[in-house]
Amino acid sequence: MTALPLKEALNQACHEIERTIDVLLPLVPGDENILIEAMRYAALGGGKRLRGFLILETAALFDAPREAALKAAASVEFLHAYSLVHDDLPAMDDDDLRRGQPSTHKKFNEAIAILAGDALQTSAFEAILDPSTKLDASIRAELALSLAKASGSTGMVAGQVIDIRGEGRALPLEEVSRLHALKTGALIRYSAEAGAILAGISKSDPRRQALLSYGADIGTAFQVADDVLDSTASTEELGKTAGKDEDASKSNYVALLGIEGARAEARRLIERARNSLEIFGPRAETLRSLADYFVERRS
């Protein structure tokens, strides 16, 4: 079957993922409904669903069950949404805008935003561990373990700590690369590998290793492109406050390599990511297009 053009494939996946999120987060009676409203606001308030799309596309390479892949895609979007809610808080990046709308703590309040982020994090694991996901228990457990490692003290949260402690300091390129491999890259690597996990593919299988390499490179390239956008795009284009890194005196790829140097580094990483997919032949064409999109996007 011929692959859909990337934009059409992204739009279709976005709708499917959002329908899944909508089912997983039903409104409830009682005072706690405000928590669900805040969770839905954070999880359904726009976004490109790139991490969820990665899971769907890599799962399709192995003909893994679509319904289970959609649960895993919703799960990673819950986790990502929680990280954004907490990242925007005054104690973190202190941003009032997210995806062109008021941040969750501005729409509701700080306490509800913190609790909504907490609940989204636990919902991420509930979605993939629930027996209704219709996967072997060992596969559900491996998904949950991999997501925990990518998002906790050995992944995204560790990167956020390094980011906070690096404000006002001139970090070397090696440390900036490590920071973003954890803060941004770990969840993208997980999303690229998750399709193989869903299909029960062994860790030693070269196809799974290829997806890990692909995920690592597009994760770094995504952050390099983000740093370029932070320096060149407007707040309206980004949907969040532009120039935040410079204002906070953060070391990033643009500060270290310059805008053109950062763009060249992103292109180098994307070329390497595309080469990692050779083992899949034409079946991975959408993933190749997605790699290009990671550095060509304007938001």
From TrEMBL:
Cofactors required: Mg(2+)
Gene Ontology molecular function, alphabetical: metal ion binding; prenyltransferase activity
CC annotations in GO: cytoplasm
Superkingdom in the source lineage: Bacteria
One Pfam family of this chain: polyprenyl_synt
This protein's UniProt keywords: Isoprene biosynthesis, Magnesium, Metal-binding, Transferase
A Gene Ontology BP annotation from the UniProt entry: terpenoid biosynthetic process
The keyword Magnesium appears for this protein: yes
KW Metal-binding (keyword) present: yes
Family statement: Belongs to the FPP/GGPP synthase family.
Protein name listed in UniProt: Polyprenyl synthetase family protein
Protein species of origin: Aristophania vespae
Organism classification: Bacteria, Pseudomonadati, Pseudomonadota, Alphaproteobacteria, Acetobacterales
